[in-house]
Design brief:
Blueprint (H helix, E strand, L loop, with lengths): L7 H12 L4 H8 L3 H19 L1
Helix pairs in contact: 1-3, 2-3
Amino acid sequence: EALKNVPEREMEVVRLRYFDGKTQIEISKIVGISQAQVSRLEKSAIKRIKSCMN
């Protein structure tokens, strides 16, 4: 349920990071965005997931 509220781009970052074990640098190269943007997307996704679980 919580994952339904996470935008596709953020979900992709979460999947690559936590399920595929990629680093933020690796994700940035795969997705074609900066490492800083990967970090922001990851943080945003985690915040959304946490807010749905409260």
